[in-house]
């Protein structure tokens, strides 16, 4: 009985404890988060990064195609005047048929406006690449221009020998045609090969194929084909052979006339110790290089071998002689007109110990290697020595070259050819 009563009392006590410990209705068990599945708290939203806009040349493909289609709409057609021969170097822009080479002024008359410095000059046979031209509507081409004259000429009096045409520089409505009706931005590679046959050279790449039709080293036509479309996208034409129609008109001067630059020369009064001065004593006479050939003639030298004349700014080779001893000299015409050798400047010569030659610091033939090095070190001049089994070569300030053999100075050379604009600036 006591045992049963104890059990009843224990049950009552447990009930009282459970009621006392019951949680209030709004109580939240802190361990619930670890056991119950609840929605995660949303993370802070990131500020959206604006998408990069496409560059002008990265428009969507559809827009590119629309632009390309617009670029080839034209009311022009190949003229009956346009040759069928690719190597006629004829081409047609809209209704204008012309042939390369063409005078600068004649190209300008067709409405092309030169985009570079029209006041520049070109030396004889100097070649300007990528001279830009533009039409009023915006179509643009690039040309090569050359001076065929023997004098320095204004670029406006020179000759256009080449032209490069890019499809992307062709404004809507304009058209470029080649012989047999091949049209920029319209004709295909198959049509090109059917018209002109197999090209001389073909270069293939992932984006473009290059078909080059070469007549010779001075005359060729190159087509660039876009692989994606198979269409002619660029044309590069070059004809550097002068014709009667492109012979430059210029007033030929008297080639014997002494250029003003010759009169600016002043002979040195002493040899000195400055290697930068480019002075030399030859057979007892002083010269600063470059020195006019006429100055050598005044001191008893004669020209025994030389061309009849040198074009403006040209260089060449002559032989001068005195007392039955000859020297080879390199000369340059520093004038802007064609002239005779006497009006040119000697910028380089060399001579062996048969001549009386002395350079700054009294360096002359017969001086020993040891003495030469001592003099050069004391002068502070910059020099390099290249030693060989049979000789030593001294390069002094880039102006003088001395060769020693058997331990003694055996050959002396001077070389100094500044630019025309720097000839008498120091």
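Sequence proposed for the structure above (426 residues):
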């Amino acid at each position: 009985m006591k045992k049963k009563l104890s059990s009843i009392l224990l049950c009552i006590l447990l009930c009282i404890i459970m009621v006392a410990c019951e949680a209030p209705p709004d109580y939240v068990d802190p361990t619930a988060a670890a056991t119950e599945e609840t929605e995660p708290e949303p993370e802070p939203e990131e500020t959206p990064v604006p998408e990069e806009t496409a560059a002008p040349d990265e428009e969507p493909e559809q827009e590119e195609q629309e632009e390309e289609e617009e670029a080839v709409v034209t009311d022009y057609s190949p003229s009956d005047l346009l040759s069928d021969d690719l190597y006629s170097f004829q081409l047609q822009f809209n209704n204008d048929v012309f042939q390369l080479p063409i005078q600068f002024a004649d190209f300008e008359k067709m409405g092309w406006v030169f985009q570079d410095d029209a006041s520049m000059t070109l030396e004889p046979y100097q070649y300007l690449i990528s001279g830009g031209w533009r039409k009023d509507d915006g179509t643009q081409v690039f040309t090569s221009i050359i001076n065929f004259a023997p004098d320095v000429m204004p670029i406006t009096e020179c000759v256009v020998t080449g032209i490069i045409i890019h499809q992307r520089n062709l404004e809507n409505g304009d058209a470029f045609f080649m012989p047999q009706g091949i049209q920029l931005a319209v004709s295909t590679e198959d049509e090109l090969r059917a018209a002109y046959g197999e090209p001389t050279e073909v270069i293939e790449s992932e984006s473009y194929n290059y078909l080059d039709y070469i007549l010779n080293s001075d005359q060729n036509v190159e087509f660039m084909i876009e692989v994606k479309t198979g269409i002619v996208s660029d044309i590069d034409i070059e004809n550097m052979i002068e014709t009667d129609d492109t012979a430059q008109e210029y007033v030929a001067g008297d080639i014997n006339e002494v250029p003003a630059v010759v009169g600016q020369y002043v002979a040195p009064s002493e040899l000195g110790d400055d290697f930068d001065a480019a002075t030399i004593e030859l057979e007892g006479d002083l010269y600063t290089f470059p020195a006019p050939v006429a100055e050598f003639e005044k001191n008893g030298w004669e020209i025994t071998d030389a061309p009849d004349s040198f074009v403006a700014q040209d260089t060449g080779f002559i032989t001068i002689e005195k007392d039955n001893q000859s020297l080879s000299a390199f000369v340059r015409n520093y004038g802007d007109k064609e002239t005779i050798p006497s009006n040119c400047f000697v910028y380089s010569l060399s001579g062996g110990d048969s001549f009386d030659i002395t350079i700054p610091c009294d360096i002359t033939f017969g001086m020993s290697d040891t003495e030469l090095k001592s003099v050069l070190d004391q002068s502070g001049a910059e020099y390099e020595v290249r030693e060989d089994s049979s000789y030593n070569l001294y390069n002094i300030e880039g102006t003088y070259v001395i060769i020693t053999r058997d331990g003694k100075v055996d050959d002396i050379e001077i070389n100094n050819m500044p630019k025309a604009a720097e000839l008498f600036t120091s």
